[in-house]
Design a protein that fits this description.
- The protein is of the alpha/beta class.
- The chain folds into two domains: 91 residues, FAD/NAD(P)-binding domain, CATH 3.50.50.60; 63 residues, no CATH class.
- 34% of the residues lie in helices and 21% in strands.
- It is built from four helices and seven strands; from the N terminus they run βαβββαβββαα.
- The strands form three sheets. Strands 1-2-5 form a three-stranded parallel beta sheet, covered by helices on one side.
- α1 links the parallel β1 and β2.
- The chain is globular and about 70 Å long.
- The relative contact order is 0.12.
- The mean pLDDT is 82.
């Protein structure tokens, strides 16, 4: 098991998987990539960060020995080195991951907008991760309903 899906975790998973080990790549974020995925250029070569990471994402996803488990956190570890059991808590996405193609049609019909966590809480017009935080959506729906009611009352 590799905990952390940043560039180091991705490379560790690829190295272990290629060596023949079954690897579970676990990350608490909705996607792998870590902070490097948020960068434009990398030091010292000034290479495009996604030009480095994207091929690794694809290789990781296609690798027969690697299982990517995003939006999950380690709850407990029991046992000893070489013989241990890990319990994960997988956060719900409130979408059917097996059916989601990333087409963004659902975003067009979603009545709420909230800051994009990937982009340092900058407000965007759409939810890009297709992972819904139940509490944030409830809060935004409440605000949307309140504003809708207020606007309706002002018109009458």
């Amino acid at each position: 098991m590799v905990v952390g899906g940043g560039i180091s975790g991705i490379q560790a998973a690829l190295d272990l998987g290629t060596a023949g080990f079954k690897v579970y790549l676990v990350d608490k974020a909705p996607t792998i990539g870590g902070h490097m995925a948020q960068l434009d250029k990398t030091f010292p070569t000034n290479d495009c960060s996604m030009c480095i990471e994207s091929p690794k994402f694809v290789e990781c996803n296609r690798h027969p020995n690697i299982e990517i488990m995003t939006y999950a956190e380690v709850d407990s570890v029991e046992g000893k080195a070489g013989d241990f059991t890990v319990t994960l808590i997988k956060k719900p996405r409130y979408i059917d991951e097996s059916k989601c193609t990333g087409c963004t049609v659902c975003v067009e019909y979603c009545p709420v907008q909230y800051p994009d966590q990937f982009n340092q809480e900058i407000w965007n017009d759409t939810i890009k991760t297709h992972t819904l935080d139940k509490n944030r959506v409830k809060e935004m729906l409440r605000k949307w309903q309140t504003n809708t009611q207020r606007n309706s009352n002002e018109k009458h």
